[in-house]
Amino acid sequence: MSAQGRLLAECQLLAKQSTPSVFALADEDDILHWTALIVGPPHSPYGLGMFHFDMRFPKDYPNSPPRVLITTTSSGTVRFNPNLYNNGKVCLSILGTWKSESSGEQWSSVQNVLSVLLSIQSLMHDKPYHNEPSFEDDDGSGDVERYNEKIAHETLRVAVVDTMEDTLQARAPPNGATPAFADLRKQLLIVHMCNYLDVLNGWIASANSAVHDGRQFKMMPFECAANCMDGTFGWKAVRERLLAVKAQLDAEHDGWRAAGVEQAALLRSDRAIGLAPSVRALAEQFDELAADGVDNVSISSSKQNALVWELTLLGPENTLWEGGYFQVEFVFPPSWPELSPRVRFATRMFHPNISRDGAPYLSTLLQWHNGSARQRTVKAVLDEVRALLTKEPDPEPITHVNREAAGLCFSADEAGKREFRRRARRCAQDSNE
Q1: Which residue in the list 91, 194, 228, 427 is annotated as catalytic?
Q2: What's 3-127+143-233's CATH class?
Q3: Residue 374's pLDDT is what?
Q4: How far apart are CA 8 and CA 5, in angstroms?
Q5: Residues 6+ apart with CB under 8 A from 121
Q6: Cis upstream peptide for 82 (omega within 30°)
Q7: Fold of the domain built from segment(s) 275-430
Q8: Residue 174 scores a pLDDT above 90
């Protein structure tokens, strides 16, 4: 199989992830050039950061490995890991950029894009200090903690806020935030916003004076001036910028609503000129869903807004949500289905996979860029929304957008599980008032 054929097959493999945390897309004009995004593992100093990579494949791939560079470096000024240099170098044995005595860690043709990205993600664990050779043991100096602290700060500053500002301002990306993943990054920010703010507020309130605003980052023994993570803590400034990003996303959302009002007026006047193709496509899908019917779901399309759907989900029998009536809103972009819709529970929920703001973790929305026009349907999104109430909560930490609910739901303590069930049932009861 040619490199092109192999890479086309790997596109499909990436699209099949049920709970994706790594993403990759080929350049439309060059199948041998890919852009990748890795979400930092939760509960690590890289937690939920959006790290971008440039991947270039040789013509004899998969016989030879790709060349991979990290581009989330704040214009070459931030080294995020002993194995991730600020000049972009990714030190990994399977890529041939790090020597290893173990033959099992060398490149082989069974490796693929997904395995490479997961290997890079595995470097982003809870104690990356120990990735540096000869620093595998904790010497009690406190450097392990100091290193984590500055990584956590720079993850939020560079891999979240800088990256989202680049996205919203469509500026030349010093952090690799290419347009290919713009919609994905917005969905990630929306669903994880509460987690980002909780982490920032925790650092701001910390009694640890070493991380207070204005304190200098500590240089690690394996860092040097040309390849390091230097700077000062500024948690409050990062929070202010994050809230400004949120306000811009809210304004974009409001713009979609305003466009929907205009489109609804055109529909009422029977004027075809100016009517967006997305509105016609949505009307067709609404008619299909209405004709087929959807169990335990009532769907209404607002006559006042052609880009807003309102859903009522009836809590399924024999679940914690039984008897509840849950309001969900779908707001579609004028360019739908090119871009994904925004989905929000208007009813208060206590669920590991639904944020306090009502944003559900939906892999369908995160994988929107991988779907064909036929796969990008309202029904696909609706089915996953319904599954939030019919199936057990997803145990994968990357999906835990309400960490309090997740902590209780998956607690080893039975008392914690009971408290989760009590609060979930209370949501169902309150939804009737």
Answers
A1: 91
A2: alpha beta
A3: 77
A4: 5
A5: 21, 22, 38, 40, 41
A6: no
A7: Ubiquitin Conjugating Enzyme (3.10.110)
A8: no
